[in-house]
Amino acid sequence: MGTKLPKELRYLSKALAELDDQDDLSDDAVIAPLRSALLERIAGLPEEKAQKRLDDDLERLEHWLEDVDDDLSSAHFILGYMMTPGLARELIELRAAEESAQNERTESGDDRGHRESE
Prior knowledge:
Layout: H1 13-20, H2 32-42, H3 47-67, H4 73-82, H5 87-108, H6 112-116
Helix pairs in contact: 1-2, 1-4, 2-5, 3-4, 3-5
């Protein structure tokens, strides 16, 4: 992708590049880098402020896409994903579920790499 994202959206650059390399954007695993970038963006924020930040970024992305001439289907994919109602809640719940699963693995001894290094 030759068109540079605005400063406020550069946190999406890696996810955008990875999406550009994909032939099929329908696979759930393909959006993992995007989810990761969005989770990092809202880390530590309460849900309401997290949603506001994502909404602001969505608006910036919309304006940016209006101004670029390139065919940026992956950026349009991100735009569509960011339009998901209640995205902040979904991401926060996803992070909580992942952390809970990690804690369960650690407590049950399934975290072998961690246990062996202690």
